[in-house]
Amino acid sequence: MIKLYVVPGSNPSMSARLALEHKGLKYERVDLIPTIHMAFLRLAGFPAPTVPALRIDSRRVQGSLAVIRALEELRPEPPLFPGDPEGRRRVEEAERWGEAVLQPIPRRLAWWALRRERKALRSFAEGAALHVPIGLAIHAAGPIIRFEIRTHGATDESVQADLRALPETLSRIDACIERGVIGGATPNAADFQIAPSVRLLMCPDQLRPRVAERPCGRLAARLLPEFPGRIGPVLPPTWLPG
Ligand SMILES: N[C@@H](CCC(=O)N[C@@H](CS)C(=O)NCC(=O)O)C(=O)O
Fold first, then answer.
1. Span from the CA of 120 to the centroid of ligand 1 (angstroms)
2. Ligand 1 atom 12 nearest Cα
3. For the residues of the chain, what is the DSSP string, one character each?
4. Cα 52 to ligand 1 centroid, rounded to whole Å
5. What is the pLDDT of residue 141?
6. CA of 227 to the centre of ligand 1 (A)
7. pLDDT in tens, 149-189
8. For a Cys-Cys bond, which of 30, 65, 132, 199 suits 220, CB 3.0-4.6 Å?
9. What pLDDT is attached to residue 125?
10. Strand partners of residue 2
11. Which of 184, 109, 180 is nearest to 149 (CA)?
12. For ligand 1, atom 14, which residue shows the shortest CA distance?
């Protein structure tokens, strides 16, 4: 029995979903409300408060990197990493950067923006089974948004800095595609780590056109044609990258 605990719109949760689907593994998805998910995960026996959280029978695995490796071990085919050592090294390097550096950028941006446009939560919940009326969840979301902003350091300063660096960040991903590390005919672990973060960056209306036409935007749209979340023009125009 495989169970995956996710939060709607969570980029690393989407990495785990992509990997499970790539492997053709049957699984049950449990959609959790952010913040409340932490208590839920503890009750479900997970040691850490983050999603993705995976249960394979009695084994519990958390963190997108660990989840990917557990799935690779469980079902080696089709592989998530190249067979040759140099190819694997390059994919793992891109994957690690995707997890440690790229992943927090759209997460900070999304929580910052949701504080300014709480109703956008409705679009993030599309397709999720939250077992709570969405109107009620939006109404009660103020403390959750404030908590997530604190947890992830989604301050004006950090979001502004992320946006200033965005052209460079996206160029790095485009260069990865150019070098063939990601973006090949068969996606690998680095594709599955990076594409959900790029796709989340395309949720704000003001950023979508700046990302969608780039190689990284096209890759994200190819791997994730369906992705929840749409954020209106809440970013100060002076913060937007040129
Ligand atoms: N780098 C970790 C990040 C996990 C993470 O921070 N997930 C968020 C949702 S996107 C979460 O569970 N946040 C709650 C918390 O940090 O306590 C991974 O790749 O799994």
1. 20
2. 50
3. -EEEEE-TT-HHHHHHHHHHHHHT---EEEE--TTHHHHHHHHTT-SSS-S-EEEETTEEEESHHHHHHHHHHH--SS-SS-SSHHHHHHHHHHHHHIIIIITHHHHHHHHHHHHH-GGGHHHHTTT---SS-HHHHHHT-HHHHHHHHHHHT--HHHHHHHHHTHHHHHHHHHHHHHTTSSSSSS--HHHHHHHHHHHHHTSBTTTHHHHHTSHHHHHHHHH-S-----B-S-S-GGGS--
4. 7
5. 95
6. 18
7. 999 999 999 999 999 999 999 999 999 999 999 999 999 99
8. 199
9. 95
10. 56
11. 109
12. 50
Cis peptide leading into residue 52 (ω within 30°): yes
Q: Which of 37, 50, 114, 194 to mutate to test the pocket of ligand 1 (most atoms within 8 A of CB)?
A: 50
Total number of residues shown for the chain: 242
Residues of the chain with pLDDT under 70: none
Identify whether the C-beta of residue 203 lies closer than 8 Å to the C-beta of residue 14.
no
- Here the tokens at position 35 are 């913040």
Query: Does the beta carbon of 12 lie inside 6 Å of ligand 1?
Result: yes
Q: Are 2 and 23 in contact (CB under 8 A)?
A: no
Residue 76 corresponds to which tokens in the numbers above? 């080696």
CA distances from 224 to 153, 164, 180, 218, 227 (A): 27, 26, 19, 10, 6
Phi, psi of 34, rounded to the nearest 5 degrees: -55, 150
pLDDT for res 242:
77
The two three-digit tokens of residue 187, written as one number? 């996606």
The whole-model pTM stands at 0.97
